[in-house]
Structure formats: structure tokens, C-alpha cells
Amino acid sequence: MTALILYDGVCNFCNRSVQFIIKRDPNAYYQFASLQGETAQKLLSDFRVKGDVDSFILIEDGQLYVKSTAALRICKQLAGTVRFLTFFLVVPRPIRDFFYDIIAKNRYKWFGESDHCLIPSDDIKKRFVD
Questions:
Q1: In order along the chain (130 residues), what is the average pLDDT of each group of 10 residues?
Q2: Is residue 130 part of a domain?
């Protein structure tokens, strides 16, 4: 079984987050698709997500999770101490998303944009869909 993470392909912070996840996902549970790609756009339409998406999105077991809920649920499958971040799921979502939104709104300013893609090894490349 796998889950799919949709991410902003031009955001440096998002790209580094994907690399962080790959390093801590020894069972290759997660696959990835850029929000700018066809697969992500079709899935967003299928899930009736409207407007500009300013979030990491996790699609797992037929459910779509956004913002802090997606980020924290992703941690649950990762190796190492990062999985303990799932504890923050007990914090009410509006509070978690308030802080998530601050980072999301400033991510280009703080971390920049990328005009090129990561060139992954063959075994990592197969985890990207589009």
C-alpha cells in the first residue's frame, strides 16, 4: 500500500521536504506528484478541491488531507524521531493550520523558488508520478 503526496514543485521548501521524506521513508510508502502536473490536477478535480492550493496534500486510503493534518500524518510513516510530531494532531486543527498558513504564505520569500527539478536516482524516480 502507498500514499500520494502532492507538493508545490517550484517551492524550494516543498522540494526539500520531499527529499526529507524520501530519506526517512525506507519502505517507500509515499509517492509524489507536483501540484503543477496533470496527475495532481486530476486528483484535485476528483476530490473537488477548488481554487489555488497552498498546501502539501496527502491522499491516503481514499482520503484527502491538507495543511498541518497532511504534514503531521506524513510523519506517522517516517523512520526516526520525526514520527513523534504526530502528537501535535491533538492540537485543534485551526490552531495548527494558523501556523501552517504563516509558513505557506511566506515560503517563496523565505526559501525561494526553483526553476529546475531534482534529478533522482532510478529507484527514487519511480516514486514520482505525473
A1: 86 84 94 90 88 83 94 95 95 94 79 61 72
A2: no
